[in-house]
Amino acid sequence: MVDKDELPEDFQCSEEWITLGTHYRLLVEPLDIANYYRLGKNEDSGPYLKNGRPRRYTTLQKWLKEIEVTKQLQPSPTGIDQPTVLTQDSCLWAHVEEIACLMRPNNVRDQENLVAELENSVKALIGSNGLSMEELVAGNCNSTFNTVVKWLWTNMNAEKKASSPISYIIDRHPELIN
């Protein structure tokens, strides 16, 4: 509809539509990310965030940022208008899946950049209370997220552990490293 210019002229300014679109993005994009990696598209096309993310998600995210800047609002992860999801960053799962790919044998990708991207995402989510840790780690001890956190923690040196946002997760859920 965007390409065919079928949307109302002020569509991207309508807070109601942006909120509904954000709900859609937060609920559906993690499923698209899981499917992308399940089908191995990252091996053919590259990382989801660079080559596989559909424009519908980037456009919705851009419009949300524009509204937040225009109205000088901060996203409220606990607000009534927020959907019930584990995280307010639908791209967190792409970072987790990329790290999971690093854990495979014979992988020679740039590990430090991917880890830094995940840490930055987790740090921002922790700072804005946009990450539901209890639900994220309590459910399945063998989840990809838990496996990645454990792998990162065991491969970090003591200095890195002290400054990493992963330490926040480990402090609250020490069972992940056992």
TrEMBL record:
Ranges where the EDS1 EP domain occurs: 1-157
One BP term from GO: defense response
Source organism superkingdom: Eukaryota
One Pfam family in the UniProt entry: EDS1_EP
PANTHER family: EDS1 EP DOMAIN-CONTAINING PROTEIN, PROTEIN EDS1-RELATED
Name this polypeptide is given: EDS1 EP domain-containing protein
Provenance organism: Picea sitchensis
